[in-house]
Amino acid sequence: MTRLAAVGGLLLGGAMVTQAAMASEPPAATATVRSAAAPVVSNPGAALVKKLGAARTAGTWINDDGRPVVAVTDEETADAVRASGVEAKVVSHSMNELKSATATLRSAPKVPGTAWVMDYRTNQVVVQADKTVSAADWSRLTDTAAGIGSFVRMERTAGAFTTRINGAQPILSTGGRCSAGFNVTNGKSDFILTAGHCGPTGSAWFSDNQAEQQVGQTVNSNFPGSDFSLVQYANGKAGDGADVVAIGNGNGVRITGAGDAAVGQRVFRSGSTSGLHDGQVTGLDATVNYPEGTVSGLIETNVCAEPGDSGGPMFSDGIALGVTSGGSGDCKTGGTTFFQPVTDALAQLGGVQLIVAAPSAGAQGATQGSSAGPAPASSPTQAAIAPGSASPGTTTPVTGGGNVSLAARLTDPRNIGPGLLVIAGSMVALVATRYFRAEQDRKAYQRYYSATWG
C-alpha cells in the first residue's frame, strides 16, 4: 500500500507541475478589425470646422499645449467656437480661398520637384521647390503664385522630392525595396497596406535577396494620384502579431485604430532603413509633383525618412495615420516626409479593414458608433495632446506577445514549487518502501537458508 501511495504521489506531483506551468502562460493577445468608416478623432476641432463650413473657417490644428485651435474668418464665428470650449483664431482667408489657390497651382503646368500645402497656422499656401527645379521653372511658378495673392508663400528646399524606394536590400518587390505598413483584411484574406509606388499590380514580394521566401503579391496599386497598394500574403494570413508594427530592437507597437492626422500632432514613423523617428504634422492635403507623377491629399510632416522606408507606417498613440510616400532630406540632416492617409486609402479600397489590437474593457475608443466625432472639448483627447507628450503606443514584442515556452515555464520555480515538493516526498517514500522490502526479503532468505542447511 505504501508503494502504491508513493506512485500516486508522483503522478499527482507531475500533474501539479504541468497545471501550474500551463496556468502561468500569458494569455494570447487577440486582434480584431476596425472599419475606416469610424476613424479615431485626433483633433476635436475638426467637428467644428465641418459644422461651421469652409466659408467661415480655415482649418484647425493642435497648439503647443495640446489644445485644438480653429481658424475662423469673423468674430461671430469665433464666439461660436469659443462657446464650444475651443480656442479661435481670426484669419484673413477662408478654407475656400486656400483651396482655390491650390486648384490654380494644380492647373498650372506640372513641374517635377515641387510641392504645395495649406499651412493652417499661418493662413497661407506654401509652395516648395527642390534643388532639381530650374531657375526658369521657379520664375514661372513665382509668377503664378503672385497672381493668386500674397497669402501664397514660396520656399526653396534642400535635397530633392523623391519616393523612398531602394532596390538593394531585403523585403523586396520586383520594383525594389520598401517597408510593410499596416495589416488589413477583407475577412477572407489578409494584406499589407503599403505605398503604391513600390510596385504595380502583380509585383512579387520576398523577404530575402535570393527571392526564395515569398511574402506575397501586389493585388491592388494606386499611384500616381494617390499612393497606396495592397500586398496579399502568400499563405492568405498575416499570422501572429498582425496588429503590431515593428519599431526596432525586437519591439513593436500595438495598433488600436485608424484616424485622421491633425496639424501640430506629434507622430512616429517606422521604416526598414532608418528605424523609428518622430516629428510633427505640418500640413494636410499636400500635393507633391514626384518625377513619376503627381500625388495629392498627402500629410506633410517634418519627420525624416530615407530610401527603403517607403510604405512604412506612421502612427501616434497606437493610432494608424499614414504610410510613407516620399519627401526630401534624410535622417542625418532632417527633411520633409509626406504620407498617404490610411483612412483615405481604406475608403478608396472599400471592403478592407484595419487589423487592430482588441480594445480592453472601458478603454477609450473601445467602441465606435457613427462616423461623426465626439463633441469638441477643451481637454486633450487621444493623440490631440501636447506634441512633446505623445507616444508611439503600447509596446510589445514584434512576435505579437511575450510568449514563453512550456519548457521555460516548467523550469520556473515560482510555478512548480508545490508540485516539486509532492514529487520529492513521493520519491523518498518510494525509496524507503523499496529499502524496507529488500531488507525483509534478505532476512527471510537467511531464515530459509538456516532451516535448509541447519
TrEMBL record:
Residues 93-147 form the Peptidase S1A alpha-lytic prodomain domain. Residues 1-20 form the signal peptide. It comes from the Bacteria. Residues 363-400 are annotated as: Disordered. The chain crosses the membrane at residues 416-436. Residues 363-398 have a biased composition (Low complexity). Keywords: Disulfide bond, Hydrolase, Membrane, Protease, Serine protease, Signal, Transmembrane, Transmembrane helix, Zymogen. Coiled coil: none annotated. Residues 188-345 form the Peptidase S1 domain. PROSITE patterns: TRYPSIN_HIS, TRYPSIN_SER. GO terms for molecular function: serine-type endopeptidase activity. The keyword Membrane applies. One of its GO terms (biological process) is proteolysis. GO terms for cellular component: extracellular region. Belongs to the peptidase S1 family. This is Protease.
